[in-house]
Design brief:
Blueprint lengths: L1 H15 E2 L5 E2 L4 E2 L2 H6 L7 E15 L8 E14 L4 E10 L3 E12 L5 E8 L22 H4 L6 E11 L4 E8 L3 E3 L27 E8 L5 E11 L1 E2 L10 H8 L4 E13 L2 E13 L1 H8 L6 E12 L1 H4 L6 E16 L10 E14 L2 E12 L7 E11 L1
Parallel strand pairs: 1-4, 11-14
Antiparallel strand pairs: 2-3, 4-5, 4-21, 5-6, 6-7, 7-8, 8-9, 9-10, 10-12, 12-13, 13-15, 15-16, 16-17, 17-18, 18-19, 19-20, 20-21
Length: about 400
């Protein structure tokens, strides 16, 4: 009886759930991530199950020192989508990191108002750059994500809010515009600084502090075959616990609270291009941190008054030279990153070690659409002439289904 009940349950689940990944919208030539596939109804059922995972090996190299390598089940993610109607969806992304850490990376409700406008509310990815929205391991080259997306765009960056998204197919445009809570800059101590950039300020939707609303948005153009161009922005103030239970009549207390907040203005442009076996991508990010001098004086941090960074990358599928119809791909790639979290500073000396140049070259063997083996070599240099370059070898596997 128990076996019969289990079989009936499995048959029911298989009937309503389906996992399916389509990497490109064939009508617009627009790359799609897992959430977009779910929202497009590509699962075809009420419940859609999808996911991705990464297992990594990192080995630092040096001439005079020996380092242990690091092996890690870096990420294991499960996407669950539910279609209430043809217009209303709920999307969740549950993430295990390093086996022991559990996060909710996305959890939002979307309702399609018409063919061009969708309302979205919940925990959402900030639409800055490329990797923050498209971070499935088979969608980018290299074992690790670009480091610029770690420091300046604190991938994976998500906040709670609401707004609108959609397309204007006649103009080959896709847009997003949201009002969200901001990064946390102060909770008794300063959270953001020169070395790690904004990364420690991510609230991740976990008991998030809300002080003032921020605005973020992006416009993508996909009207040229094989090319996608993006323009993104994020504007507003960081959040601070110093405003909690604050007497607005106390000018000194108000000025103190104001010194814990940064006025952020971040803009970015990015592109992705593909022509048969050749692919290229790149992005540029600039972020201004107004009030950084007062913030550093109060918190003792070393936040730069502006961040800047860019990277450029190219790859080629060499298996296509042997067999144009091969199901597998062997992509050889190279990436150059240049980013500085002390691009400019106020009332302090610039730390040259925060100006970084990263070189990454390697291969990715796609065994199937959704399964890849990766290997690469990285060299990390900073603009301080008194420091030595660092070297690292990375091996990894990634799946996306």
């Amino acid at each position: 009886m128990k076996r019969l009940s289990l079989n009936l349950l499995l048959m029911f689940f298989v009937n309503i759930a389906q996992a399916q990944v389509i990497s490109t919208d064939t009508t617009t030539n627009e790359p799609m991530n897992t959430a977009q596939n779910i929202l497009a109804g590509n699962g075809g059922k009420a419940i859609t199950v999808a996911g991705y995972g990464e297992v990594h090996f990192n080995q630092q190299l040096a001439n005079a020192q020996r380092y242990n390598g690091n092996m890690d089940v870096h990420r294991l993610i499960m996407f669950l989508g539910y279609k209430f109607t043809d217009k209303t969806f709920f999307v969740t992304e549950l993430e295990f990191e390093h086996v022991k850490e559990l996060y909710v990376e996305q959890a939002f409700l979307q309702h399609n108002l018409n063919s061009n406008i969708n309302f979205r509310s919940g925990l959402m990815l900030i639409p800055m750059g490329i990797v923050n929205e498209y971070h499935e391991p088979t969608t980018f080259n290299g074992v690790e994500r670009p480091n610029m997306d770690n420091k300046i765009i604190p991938t994976t960056w998500r906040e709670i809010g609401a707004g609108f998204s959609g397309k204007f197919p006649s103009a080959s445009l896709r847009y997003q515009l949201y009002v969200v809570n901001g990064l946390l800059s102060y909770d008794g101590v300063g959270k953001i600084g020169g070395n790690s950039g904004y990364r420690s300020g991510r609230q991740k939707g976990a008991n998030s502090i809300f002080t003032t609303p921020n605005i973020t948005g992006k416009v993508d153009f996909y009207g040229v075959k094989g090319l996608k161009l993006g323009l993104s922005g994020y504007f507003g103030k960081t959040q601070s616990t110093a405003y909690d239970n604050l007497d607005m009549r106390e000018n000194t207390a108000l000025l103190t609270a104001d010194s814990t907040v940064i006025n952020m203005s971040m803009v970015g442009i990015d592109f992705r291009y593909q022509n048969k076996a050749f692919k290229a991508r790149g992005q540029f990010i600039y972020s201004n941190n107004d009030n950084s001098d007062q913030y550093n004086a109060y918190t003792g941090r070393d936040l730069g008054s502006s961040f800047i960074g860019y990277y450029i990358e190219a790859s080629y599928d060499v298996l296509s030279l042997i067999n144009k119809d091969a199901e597998m791909e062997l992509n050889i790639f190279g990436r150059y990153e240049n980013y500085d979290t002390h691009n400019s500073v106020i009332n302090m000396a610039r730390n040259l070690t925060y100006g970084r140049l990263d070189y990454t070259t390697g291969i990715g063997l796609k065994l199937a659409n959704g399964a890849v083996l990766k290997a690469d070599y990285q060299q990390f240099i900073n603009i301080d002439p008194t420091t030595d370059a660092k070297h690292q070898i990375n091996l990894g596997l990634g799946v996306w289904f």
